[in-house]
Amino acid sequence: MTTVEVPHGSRSVVLRVSAVITETIDTCSLVFDVPEEFRERFSYHPGQFLTLRIPSDLTGSVARCYSLASSPYTDDRPKVTIKRTVGGYGSNWVCDNVKAGDELEVLPPSGVFTPKNLDDDLLLFGAGSGITPVMSILKSALARGNGKVVLIYANRDHESVIFAAELRELADKHPQRLTVIHWLEYLQGLPTPDALATLVSPYAGYNAFMCGPKPFMDRVHDALARLDVPRTRTHAETFNSLAGDPFADQVPAEVSDEEAADAATVEVELDGEVHEMSWPRKQTLVDIMLAKGLDVPYSCQEGECGSCACTVLEGKVEMANSEILDPEDIANGYILGCQARPVTDHLKIQF
């Protein structure tokens, strides 16, 4: 049995695995018990993810982000779903080792891949394990919204379809609201932008959410562009392996007198409150907010997960790594707080 004595940082919590569910031959789900004292900290929005600390003989641990397949409105406990990947240390370790009753160190839910309004009509795309956050959104919209939901789900074959039985049950229960369209590679080949555009053209007015391998999402982006779906109605979720340790508490770097004198000023709106701070030019936005004791949303601090995404209302920043953001995102003012450093003397930023 895997047990964890104490968390490695002030943000993480040790949770007990209440169940391990075999979803397909290469996919499993972990269901977590959340003690009452941590219920508020682990409340989540549809489409968010958890970051797990996974033991490693080589590095001590690795951090991996896994999407929540559960819905905060229909499921009593949070559930993440993990599919094995070739050479993927984290996914294989979880599927090979974790049993009910084990303990894992977990960071609170994070991520911005979530609808602003569950009443909207939704066009959802999932490929392989990319169904995981999409499933959370789908179940939540059916439970709490009143719009229509269309799911395009791509897999190699029937045996690869995760949540097949649950999707059938939901389609039977909500025949007027839910449409599930399976795309199976062994029958139809790989989906092309033209084929996808034809398939989803009746739903071009819906808000689109997609998750899956990059080639699949590139084709979906192309298909939606051919239908003139605006970028503001297109949302994509991507994950990369984290090289750093998001579980360790961050120690603010010392600021010299010269750096303090040259610092920018920033007004940050967080949870409806505005905080005015000095922003030394060598520090990131997340750095200065943590130093002020603010509960800034972040996870990886590497620019890979999008948890710290926010909007520049005034001013300009530079970012060391912004690959997770599309050019349209950046043009609309989106930045990553963990990568952003000030260029102008005064800025306004909104989370």
What's the layout of helices and strands?
Layout: E1 13-24, E2 27-33, E3 49-56, E4 60-67, E5 79-83, H1 89-97, E6 103-110, E7 122-127, H2 131-144, E8 149-155, H3 164-173, E9 178-184, H4 185-188, H5 193-200, E10 207-211, H6 214-226, E11 234-237, H7 257-261, E12 264-270, E13 273-279, H8 285-291, E14 309-314, E15 317-319, H9 327-331, E16 334-336, E17 340-342, E18 346-350
Parallel strand pairs: 7-8, 7-10, 8-9, 10-11, 12-18
Antiparallel strand pairs: 1-2, 1-6, 2-5, 3-4, 3-6, 12-13, 14-16, 14-18, 15-17
Summary tags:
single chain, 351 residues, alpha/beta, Elongation Factor Tu (Ef-tu), domain 3, Rossmann fold, Ubiquitin-like (UB roll), 3 domains, 6-stranded antiparallel β-sheet, 5-stranded parallel β-sheet, 9 helices, 18 strands, 32% strand
Give your account of this protein's structure:
- Helix content is 21%, strand content 32%.
- The protein has 351 residues and is α/β, with parallel strands linked by helices.
- The strands form four sheets. A six-stranded antiparallel β-sheet has the order 4-3-6-1-2-5, covered by helices on one side. Strands 9-8-7-10-11 form a five-stranded parallel β-sheet, sandwiched between helices. Strands 13-12-18-14-16 form a five-stranded mixed β-sheet.
- Strand 7, helix 2 and strand 8 form a beta-alpha-beta unit.
- Helix 5 packs across helix 6.
- It starts with 12 loop residues before the first strand and ends with a strand.
